[in-house]
Amino acid sequence: MQSIPPQVQSMLAQLESYQQQLQLLVQQKQKVQLELNEAKKALEEIEKLPDDAVIYKTVGTLIVKTEKSKAVEELKEKVETLEVRLNALERQEKKLNEKLKELTAKIQSAIRPTAG
Amino acid sequence: MQSIPPQVQSMLAQLESYQQQLQLLVQQKQKVQLELNEAKKALEEIEKLPDDAVIYKTVGTLIVKTEKSKAVEELKEKVETLEVRLNALERQEKKLNEKLKELTAKIQSAIRPTAG
Amino acid sequence: MQSIPPQVQSMLAQLESYQQQLQLLVQQKQKVQLELNEAKKALEEIEKLPDDAVIYKTVGTLIVKTEKSKAVEELKEKVETLEVRLNALERQEKKLNEKLKELTAKIQSAIRPTAG
Amino acid sequence: MQSIPPQVQSMLAQLESYQQQLQLLVQQKQKVQLELNEAKKALEEIEKLPDDAVIYKTVGTLIVKTEKSKAVEELKEKVETLEVRLNALERQEKKLNEKLKELTAKIQSAIRPTAG
């Protein structure tokens, strides 16, 4: 078996690092996506209630009365915050995927010529 | 020690894969069974309440008033969904157990003749 | 280095198995003890409330009105159940500790004579 | 490669032990800091409520009515307890960091002279 040249070894290490970052990003994205789905579902359910509905919210281990308008406002803010975070994560994922593609191409062209 | 023929090795790898799938299925079944038991217990407890009972439901971190009839309906749907999922998992488990049995027999008959 | 006689090896394997069982038991005991402390603390807090206090209980994701007398009764049952379980675990722990002590003595007397 | 003198080996082992303790301390500090932030946020939110606000508190799986004054008092006690614990952890962290610095210096001076 031929030994791998140092340059290629360094690129393979970088590739592995990118793959780990990507895996972490995908996990974070799934978590935010899940929270977003739940917030959207809650918003939908709260918006259907009459304006004078009895609504409580949890504050740590306490439960306090709130109003529909406030609950809807807070949920909308939460949905917006999560959407911003999700978009940021998706942009990072896209960039990382491009870097991965480029590096994979580089590694392949660095390996092939030696076989030519 | 005799080396294991490639065909048997491949069957042993398949066997291991089936066993891992079975283990995963059993875990999923236990989780769904647990959720089903909890939903059934909740349904039983809610059905015993008077029709005008004060009932709240949690919607994310919010708590909203609901009615007995709605709560019972939602719990019945939940029980039904979980029963359908449990049945599907049990069918998968049965099929996988049959495959495991067949493959184990195949492996045994592939090993025995060489000793004959 | 002298090889360990099969009898002693078998006793050492048994010893390890006992130690694993003991570790599991201690973990279960801690979990039950924690639940018991929480149930006792809740009972104490509920008993201090006036008899006509507004009390709700969670039933899965639903919240229903209950009465002080019912809440106290349910908590007392829970405390009792947990105390019975804790006592059973403590008896098992004591028996296992005795077995461990006996087996350790046996192993020591099986090793010492060979050095004499 | 030169073998490491026993004294230095023992100091390196001590260094590793300090680093593990520090890692544990930092984790505990983060946990307490998080709980403290949540308690402070809850206190701030409860203090803004009118004095006759309807407030409930969770007691295990039960929910009981409480008053704003009691809820505020309990949250203030919680914040205080967590601040005391956080301060204690920070003092421990500072001391451990000093020990780590001293030991690192000792190890370096124990290694350097042998190269001189």
Write out key terms for the chains shown.
homotetramer; 116 residues; Helix Hairpins
Describe the structure.
The structure is a homotetramer of 116-residue chains. With 116 residues, chain A is mostly helical. Chain A has a single domain (6-115), classed as Orthogonal Bundle (Helix Hairpins), CATH 1.10.287.370. In chain A, 78% of the residues lie in helices and 9% in strands. The first copy, chain A, has 2 helices and 2 strands; from the N terminus they run H-E-E-H. The first copy, chain A, has helices at residues 6-47, 68-115; strands at 55-59, 62-66. In chain A, strands 1-2 form a two-stranded antiparallel ribbon. The longest helix of chain A has 48 residues, at 68-115. The mean pLDDT of chain A is 93. The A-B interface holds A 38-39, 41-42, 45-46, 49, 53-58, 63, 66, 71, 75 and B 56, 59-65. Strand 1 of chain A pairs antiparallel with strand 2 (62-66) of chain B.
Give the SSE layout.
Four copies of one chain form a homotetramer.
Chain A: H1 6-47, E1 55-59, E2 62-66, H2 68-115
Antiparallel strand pairs in A: 1-2
Helix pairs in contact in A: 1-2
Précis, in short:
Chain A is mainly alpha-helical and 116 residues long.
The residue ranges of chain A in which pLDDT falls below 50 over 5 or more consecutive positions are: none
The chain-level mean pLDDT of chain A equals 93
CATH class of chain A: Mainly Alpha
Largest sheet of chain A: 2 strands, antiparallel
Structural class of chain A: mainly alpha
Oligomer classification: homotetramer
Distance between the termini of chain A: 17 Å
The strand line-up of the biggest sheet of chain A is: 1-2
> Percentage of helical residues of chain A?
over 70%
Q: Order of helices and strands of chain A, N to C?
A: HEEH
Per CATH, the architecture of chain A is: Orthogonal Bundle
Number of domains of chain A: 1
Show the largest interface: A-B, 17 and 8 residues
Based on CA inertia axes, which overall geometry of chain A fits?
A: rod-shaped
**Total strands of chain A:** 2
